[in-house]
From TrEMBL:
GO molecular function, one term: methyltransferase activity
Swiss-Prot/TrEMBL keywords: Methyltransferase, Transferase
PANTHER family the record matches: MALONYL-[ACYL-CARRIER PROTEIN] O-METHYLTRANSFERASE, METHYLTRANSFERASE
An individual GO BP term: methylation
Organism encoding this protein: Micromonospora haikouensis
Protein name: Methyltransferase domain-containing protein
Length: 253
């Protein structure tokens, strides 16, 4: 039975939302090799830095909330918030997670997202999202993220950060994912969800949000990100995880 689950009155069936999130996980797994090991690294690093589980967690560009859900289930006493610009993905997160995770609308390219999210977070994550922003906004993002964090809190940025290491040998050890096939899977996922009648108003909102945004595809080496983090006032910043062109940087506030 369809259940009203969204503040805007949109009706979404929970089981359908769960299925769309499962296929989203499959698509993301085609883009990011060894996603599970990335997530395990970020969780273990957070526990090691704090000596205990985090109390407040924020996942930015969290999409339909898969990482947010896994963090909420690992750290059962933590208050986990996800923020995203996309109303369709937020509806999936809200429908499937039902209060387990707080899901907020917010645009990382406009600094007021910090006021919406609030402060005092022990952990802020942003996975495969910063490449949607141009370089100056990514630089500004590090300032904004630091304002969200409690002293000693951890920022974890995972994205394409190519060109460091020994490319030929790293490529042999970790064959690059088939990005063309991943793009096809991404397009098919959006094509499929685009046919859901109950999501039509949110799909229209989404189209309006993204039509004025040029595809950015920003990538910079991890050292660029580490410098931006230090310039924004983070103490330590460096790579904690790498697989081919994908890397994750941790920065301590
Ligand atoms: C490739 S998806 C990754 C989603 C999620 N982190 C994951 O790993 O499943 C990129 C996400 O960034 C979000 N996004 C793009 N531009 C954004 C912006 N300006 N502000 C907030 N979120 C944004 C998209 O809506 C999408 O959910």
């Amino acid at each position: 039975m369809a259940t009203p689950t969204h503040a805007s009155g949109i009706v979404l069936d929970r089981h359908q939302a769960v299925r769309w999130r499962e296929s989203w996980a499959h698509v993301m797994g085609r883009f990011v090799p060894h996603l599970a090991s990335l997530e395990e690294t970020l969780c273990r690093a957070t526990e090691a830095v704090r000596g205990r589980a985090p109390g407040r967690v924020l996942d930015l560009g969290g999409g339909p909330g898969l990482l947010a859900e896994r963090m909420a289930r690992r750290w059962t006493d933590a208050a986990v918030t996800l923020m995203d610009i996309d109303p369709v993905l937020l509806a999936l997160a809200r429908s499937a997670l039902r209060g387990e995770v707080r899901a907020l609308e917010g645009d990382l390219s406009v600094p007021d997202w910090v006021d919406r999210a609030g402060g005092g977070y022990d952990l802020v994550t942003v996975v495969m999202t910063l490449h949607y922003l141009p370089a100056p906004q990514v630089r500004a993002f590090y300032d904004d993220a630091r304002r969200c964090l409690a002293a000693g809190g951890l920022l974890f940025v995972a994205d394409l950060m190519p060109d460091e290491g020994l490319p030929s040998l790293m490529g042999a050890l970790n064959p690059a994912p088939d990005e063309a096939a991943a793009e096809v899977a991404w397009a098919q996922w959006w094509n499929g969800i685009g046919k859901m009648d109950s999501l039509r108003p949110l799909l229209a909102q989404r189209a309006a949000i993204f039509e004025s945004r040029l595809p950015i595809g920003f990538t910079a080496p991890a050292s660029w990100h580490a410098t931006a983090a230090r310039e924004a006032g983070f103490g330590e910043a460096g790579v904690l995880w790498r697989c081919g062109r994908h890397a994750a940087l941790a920065a301590v506030a």
